[in-house]
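Predict the 3D structure for this chain.
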Amino acid sequence: MGEASKGRRCGWCGDNPWHIRYHDEEWGVPERDDQALFERLILEGMQAGLSWLTVLKKRQHMRGAFLGFDFRALAEADSALVEQWMQNPGLIRNRAKLDSVITNAKATIALPESLSDFVWSVVDGTPLQNRWRRMKDVPAETAASQALSKALKGRGFRFVGPVICYAFMQSAGLVNDHLLDCPAYGKCAALAHSQTQAN
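Done. Predicted structure below.
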């Protein structure tokens, strides 16, 4: 997507290079690939109670340990792999969170449709274009994230509360929550429009 080098970025990313790269290249970009969506969902669950910076710094290590976030391979794993993860200092060693990686992989496999179709149905397949001017106006959860949370929990997913689900929706571009004066707002809006036209 390129670097949002002109104008004012969303305030949450500050001047930290990890946050800036994630903000400029990924956050809010509509994502429809199942494996990439699974990764985002796991990362948001891992973040619960921690800083996003911690997750970003451990992300590459998680990719290696979590079999590239291949949910089909992870669905075949068992508790022995979780025990290995618990000894891995490069991971967030919270057993419940690590257990959820396998649980959520199995739940993804069991969905009656693709993960992409399932999560995108909450916004009828079209990214919501919000028009926030101040960070303090951006909600922590919405009716849509509550609906997604309920749907995912109903299918056996874990670490998918409505706040986590809204962060996931923001990350994967189901909603465009860049501020209006952020250079990334227009880029994400254009990508959403082009995807809608293609469909």
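The chain has one domain: 16-198.
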